[in-house]
Amino acid sequence: MFVRNSLLVGLATVATARDIPANVKSFYDTVRANGQCTNPLKSGFHSISGDNGSFSYCGDHSTDYKVIYLQGKNGQLANMDIDCDGIQGSAADDGRCGKSTDTQSQTSFAGTVRSYGTSQKDLDANIHPYVVFGNEGSRAGYTTFNPQSYGIKPLSVMAVVCNNKLIYGVWGDENGDDDAEAMIGEASISLATACFGKSITGGNGYDGNDVLYIAFAGDDAVPGKSAKWDAKNYSDFESSISALGDKLVARLGGNGSTPPPSGGSCSWAGHCEGTNDPNHKEGRGARLSSSLLGVALPLALATHWLT
């Protein structure tokens, strides 16, 4: 029974991963070929503890495509450390988060999640594919960056290009100043599993600096109440934001003018609800690297087994 259930969970993950669209692949390749950001909004961040701190929040396409992304130098992007913060011990928790040494019971935008009126009180790293984005803290010498200053909204949809896949998630947490260095490159364990398979644990992330995290500015990037915040598994939640994700990535390579749904800047229910929770300070997740990548099965096979 355990083996069968594990297989079904793995196949559900495959079913919600998608091939990288041509425009997104072109954007990814161009960013890497450029080598480094020419319009860094803030620099001095680290992807791996002890590196040279040459990573930036990049604004090269903040005007034309209305996006911000992470980039280092010499074609490097970011790695993927593992975050297990938020709701603990749900039915979706398969035990892999137990290897995390700094899990917190609350994410940055728990108040916003509650404002959507479901039974969900916070994000669940085992269900919600979220990205840890932005750096907040008050410690002397700690480098901070607030994405909201550049139009990125809490719980807005983000796109992650990883392991030759495109994954949609939300901006769900922030990096805090409890690390010796200002770090970037972290995602919930459910998002990381979609990228790299179930070898990922709370203590075992991915150290390759080839992951592209893309945040989209504007109220039209927020799914609000239309997302299935009270989903019981990753597949159901990710599916609920996929249509909006598809619309947002269409900006890449275009003129950045993809129109929001009719009805104004807050036309998606919940766009303008909720605020940041100032009491949350993000701890870092896994710092250990994993060279074992999940092997994706064809989507057709996944669909066959799931039905």
UniProtKB/TrEMBL annotation:
It catalyses: Endohydrolysis of beta-(1->4)-linkages between D-glucosamine residues in a partly acetylated chitosan. Its EC number is 3.2.1.132. Coiled coil: none annotated. Residues 1-17 form the signal peptide. Keywords: Carbohydrate metabolism, Glycosidase, Hydrolase, Polysaccharide degradation, Secreted, Signal. InterPro entries: Chitosanase_fungal (IPR009939). GO terms for molecular function: chitosanase activity. One of its GO terms (cellular component) is extracellular region. It holds the Pfam family Glyco_hydro_75. It is found in: Secreted. GO terms for biological process: polysaccharide catabolic process. Chitosanase catalyzing the endo-type cleavage of chitosan, the deacylated form of chitin. Chitosanase may be crucial in the degradation of the deacetylated portion of chitin in the fungal cell wall. Belongs to the glycosyl hydrolase 75 family. PANTHER family: ENDO-CHITOSANASE (PTHR42061:SF6). This is Endo-chitosanase. It comes from [Torrubiella] hemipterigena.
